[in-house]
Amino acid sequence: MTKFMVRCLLFVLFISTSFFSFAQEKPEMADAMRSNGKIYVVVAVCLTILIGLFIYVFLIDRKISKLEKEV
Amino acid sequence: MDVPHLFILNESIRNLYFHVCMWFSMMILFGVSVVYSIKYLAGFNLRNDIFAVNFAAVGSFLGILGYATGTIWANYTWVTDQNQSLGSILKEPKLIGAAIALLIYGAYFVLRGSFTDMDKKARISAVYNIFAFAMLFPSIWIIPRLVGSLHPGAPGSDSGNPALNFKDIDSRLRMVFYPAVIGWTLLGVWIATLKIRIQLLKDKTLLHD
């Protein structure tokens, strides 16, 4: 009987600890983006624009090299 | 540069120099594109059509960048601890209007691609370009400001998100904002002229008139 009780107690403890750890877990990405006065949102926006510009200019570059081959 | 200290927005107010400038220069480039479309319709010079389509292309590229940066910004400012969820953001009239405007310009390029006859293509797409530019104003500027929106400039933003409701832009922001608009526009014009020069080289034989 005592064995069973100990097992039950352990089970409850295990469940509760896992619950607590679950409650403390937060999405890390959002925290990082919301930290330091949301400055990383600005960083993300800058990177989006830079990457977009690079892709666009790269596509134009490819067009030019194609034209160079033709001429 | 110091920026106004605001709740919810925090440092992300600096996105004003990027996100808002994208839309500003997009409007300027689309305006230039329409001028060249009208010039094409006045004299049917194919050179003006090439100018119009490339300015519209770079304009829509800046529009897509503006949309992408807007989604990032909205994700960390509009979704707050209040009852704003992704569902309420997707109902945003500003987002829907901007999407419609970009899709209309997407249809402009689809329309151009569907013609085999060059003169017909240039003529009909020039007329469509004027329509697309006219549609920008209700879809981006007028309708979102008539109905409630989280985006600044809407009458409904008084109730939902007071931090976003700054009626006038701060003078410290203005010092960076206006040069940034000019700079982004010049960058867009530069890319557009590069594209135009490529196209002019390609169609050298056709344009010899």
Please tell me about this protein's structure:
The complex is a heterodimer of chains A (71) and B (209). In chain A, 87% of the residues lie in helices and 0% in strands. Chain A has 71 residues and is an all-alpha fold. Chain A is built from three helices and no strands. Chain B is mainly α and 209 residues long. Chain B is 71% helix and 0% strand. Chain B has helices at 19-43, 46-77, 86-90, 93-113, 118-146, 157-160, 171-202. The interface between A and B is medium-sized, with 23 and 24 residues.
Provide keyphrases for this structure:
heterodimer, A: 71 residues, mainly alpha, 2 domains, 3 helices, 87% helix, B: 209 residues, 7 helices, 71% helix
Q: Over all CA atoms, what is the radius of gyration of chain A?
A: 28 Å
Report low-confidence residues of chain A grouped into runs of 5 or more: 19-28
Q: What kind of sheet is the major sheet of chain B? A: none
Shape of chain A: elongated
The averaged pLDDT of chain A comes out at: 74
Uncertain stretches of chain B: 158-165
Number of strands of chain A: 0
Q: CA-to-CA gap between the ends of chain B?
A: 53 Å
Residues in helix, % of chain A: over 70%
Number of helices of chain B: 7
> SSE string of chain A, helix = H, strand = E?
HHH
In round numbers, the mean pLDDT of chain B is 85
Domains of chain B (count) = 1
The tally of beta strands of chain B, per DSSP, is: 0
Most extensive protein-chain contact, per-chain counts:
A-B, 23 and 24 residues
Overall shape of chain B: it is: elongated
Oligomer: heterodimer
The structure class of chain B reads mainly alpha
Total separate domains of chain A = 2
